[in-house]
Amino acid sequence: MPTGIxxxxxxxGWFYFELNGExxxxxxxxxxxxxxxxxxxxxxxxxxxxxxLPESQRDTRxxxxxARKVLKTPRRSSVFSAPCRQALRANSYEEAxxxxxxxxxxxxxxxxxxxxxxxxEVDELLRGTWARTTLPREAHPEVCFWGLYGSAMxxxxxxxxxxxxxxxxxxxxxxxxxxxxxxxxxxxxGFDASRDDIVDAFVLALCARSDAKRTLPEAPAxxxxxxxxxxxxxSGRDLLTQP
Length: 243
Prior knowledge:
alpha/beta, 2 domains, five-stranded mixed sheet, two-stranded antiparallel sheet, 10 helices
């Protein structure tokens, strides 16, 4: 079974899960650049961060709108519109907002600006030679749960019922999910990552190791650097029938 790595941003860096047919591992890294030492060449890395970025009004991240459409209310609010690449150089929210309006003709939410440092970090990482053999791809945890379950999660992920709902889905596809997530939370929870960060990284890793990946949209466009503007997910039906 291929190796899959799922990466989710957390307070002081990134949390990751690595899954394959024989072993699993997890941990906290401070910089996305550390993935170069974790991910073997050719493995799939799914990361919850916008990757293909617009640089003009002609560039359209259809994946954002498609994700909102499938997630519906209220999970659609978890999909933040990506800033233009030029706005990543801004030193303040006000400056980024001005640049985004000038380049895209659109505003910029404070939530999107809040993750701008991590977007910039990954965007810079993808300029290096490592990305030529191990290219991280964008995924969204709520889209991954939608794909696995066939519909969006009903409860917010930070609530107890939201956690149990997501664990029920994960347990269908990975019998060790509960054990692995509990172990990760015991080691890192409350210090390096929150419980929902750990669950999000796990569902991304579960999808990353599958050979039956799909994308939103089905035929994604590419940005000016050739990076795909997509969100990767896996259908639960495909995963259950996968050899």
